[in-house]
Amino acid sequence: MPAETGAGHRAGVTNSAPALAAQAEILTAHAKSWGLTTLKRLAAMFPDGAIVVTTSPPGLSAWEHLIAHLPTPLARRVAVATEIEYRGWCMRSPDEDHRLHAVVWSWIKAPLPPQRRPDFAPFPIADSADYWVLRYGHSGGGEEEQSGDLFAWDGAVARLLATGVTERFRSRG
User: Fold this and answer.
1) Whose CA is closest to 140, among 110, 169, 98, 112?
2) Of 18, 55, 74, 129, which cross-links 154 as Cys (Cβ 3.0–4.6 Å)?
3) Domain range for residue 80?
4) Within-domain flag for 32
């Protein structure tokens, strides 16, 4: 799923118009292919709860468009927010056990910091390119799932390198 966005941009600039357009394209495709079935499944498993979708700013309009086309009873239960907005809401209205809401996430971490490059050595990219990770999953309704897809961004094209990537985080200490 390459996202053509033009040429002549540094890969490290992830808030450029081409990078944001590529991220929006990735998030839109993901909302349609994975998000719709996930929302419907959670709604069936969690009939009385709210569902919050968190995404990167380039994904907000894609998710809002998708939700606007859901059946009204389901659409009324779904809210879209950025990850930072959702974290603020959780601090003000804690529901850590997800009794009142489920959360669905689909957002892009871009670029990954240079120190993370060795983690993805099995998927080599040019030194001038960046790794992006589409992180997605859900929690609530008695179910939890998380995964990621790895992309290479060369400043013009976002290229899918791997799906179902599990990230490992090292503790410092």
Assistant:
1) 98
2) 129
3) 3-162
4) yes
Specify the number of domains making up the chain: 1
Residue 102: half-sphere exposure toward Cβ, Cα within 13 Å: 25
Provide the CA 156 distance to its chain's centre, in angstroms. 20
The Cα–Cα gap between 49 and 98 comes to 9
CA dihedral 168, 82, 58, 117 (to 10 degrees): -20
Can you tell me whether residue 165 is helix, strand or coil? coil
**Are the CB atoms for 64 and 82 separated by under 8 Å?**
no
Angstrom CA distances, 9 to 57, 101, 107, 125, 133, stand at 20, 41, 22, 16, 20
Please report whether residue 172 resides in a domain.
no
User: Going residue by residue through the chain (173 aa), what tens digit of pLDDT does each one get?
Assistant: 444 444 433 455 667 999 999 999 999 999 999 999 999 999 998 888 899 999 999 999 999 999 999 999 999 999 999 999 999 988 998 888 888 899 999 999 999 998 889 999 999 999 999 999 999 999 987 889 999 999 999 999 999 999 999 876 544 44
- H or E segment at 160? strand 157-162
Exposure on the CB side of residue 49, measured as CA atoms within 13 A: 23
Q: What pLDDT score does 141 carry?
A: 76
Asked if residue 55 belongs to a domain, the reply is: yes
Residue 168 within any structural domain of the chain: no
Structure tokens at 104: 């669905």
